[in-house]
Specification:
Mean pLDDT: 90
Largest sheet: none
Number of helices: 1
Strand content: under 5%
Number of strands: 0
Structural class: mainly alpha
Radius of gyration: 29 Å
Shape: rod-shaped
Order of helices and strands: H
Helix content: over 70%
Length: 68
C-alpha cells in the first residue's frame, strides 16, 4: 500500500512539474503573440501610409501638364 502511495505521489509531482513547464510555454507564447500583433499593426499602418503617399504622388504627377 505504501509503495502505491509513493508511486502516486511521484506521478503527481511529475504531473505538477509538467503542468508548470507547459504553463510557462503558454505564457511565453502569449507574450510573443502580443508582440507580433503589435508589430503587425505597426507594419500595416506603415504600408497604408506608404500606399497613401504613392497614390498622392501618382495623382500629383498625373495632373502636371505634358511639358513637365
Amino acid at each position: 500500500m505504501d509503495k502505491k502511495i509513493i508511486e502516486l505521489e511521484e506521478k503527481l509531482a511529475h504531473f505538477e512539474h509538467t503542468i508548470e513547464a507547459l504553463n510557462n510555454v503558454v505564457f511565453r507564447q502569449t507574450q510573443k503573440i502580443d508582440e507580433l500583433e503589435e508589430m503587425l499593426k505597426h507594419l500595416s499602418m506603415k504600408i497604408r501610409q506608404s500606399n497613401d503617399t504613392q497614390e498622392s504622388h501618382h495623382i500629383t504627377t498625373n495632373n502636371q501638364p505634358p511639358h513637365y
